């Protein structure tokens, strides 16, 4: 069952964009903050992604604002260890006292964990974060597969 939820992310390649692509493809409301100039590792973020620009061209402001403006964050990664912007996202979740869930392939039943997380914290706006494509080249398929299993599985 597709949820009545809004997906937000920063629009970076990898996990962020996979979440937005999944939302768009499934008719789910989406948005979020991106750096000024719509910057990402592959250039300018396409306007089909309904993102608002922060005043800063740096990535950390959009990371913080997406955490701040959501009820919870899920960080997807292929590694059990968070580094770089993913670790920063987790730190911002602590700073803003927002629940944060880290999912990676070795987690038992990630889709069920995601649904439980959303239900437990009454999340209506979910921030999707994680590594960019250059860091974890197959992260998109893990994000998409998890979201499909969580929300599109037959009853």
Provide a short characterization of the protein structure.
With 155 residues, the protein is an alpha/beta fold. Helix content is 37%, strand content 18%.
Account of the protein in words:
The protein has 155 residues and is α/β, with parallel strands linked by helices. The longest helix has 13 residues, at 139-151. Helix 1 runs parallel beside helix 5, helix 2 (59-68) crosses helix 3 (84-95) and helix 4 (110-120) packs across helix 5. Helix 3 (84-95) links the parallel strand 7 and strand 8 (100-103). The strands form 3 sheets. It has a 5-stranded parallel beta sheet with strand order 2-1-9-7-8, with helices on both faces. The protein has a single domain (6-151), classed as Rossmann fold. It has helices spanning 15-25, 59-68, 84-95, 110-120, 139-151, and strands at 6-8, 29-31, 33-34, 39-40, 43-44, 52-53, 72-76, 100-103, 125-129. It is built from 5 helices and 9 strands. It is globular and about 40 Å long. Helices cover 37% and strands 18% of the residues.
């Amino acid at each position: 069952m597709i949820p009545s939820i809004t997906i937000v992310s920063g629009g970076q390649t990898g996990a962020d964009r996979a979440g937005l692509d999944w939302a768009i493809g499934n008719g789910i409301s989406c948005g979020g903050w991106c750096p000024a100039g719509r910057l990402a590792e592959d250039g300018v973020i396409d306007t089909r992604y309904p993102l608002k620009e922060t005043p800063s061209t740096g990535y950390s402001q959009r990371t913080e604002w997406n955490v701040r403006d959501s009820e919870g964050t899920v960080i997807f990664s292929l590694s059990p260890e968070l580094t770089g912007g993913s670790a920063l996202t987790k730190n911002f979740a602590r700073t803003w006292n927002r629940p944060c869930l880290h999912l990676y392939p070795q987690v038992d039943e990630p889709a069920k964990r995601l649904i439980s997380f959303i239900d437990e914290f009454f999340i209506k706006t979910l921030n999707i974060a994680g590594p960019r494509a250059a860091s974890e080249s197959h992260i998109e398929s893990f994000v998409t597969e998890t979201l499909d299993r969580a929300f599109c599985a037959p009853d």
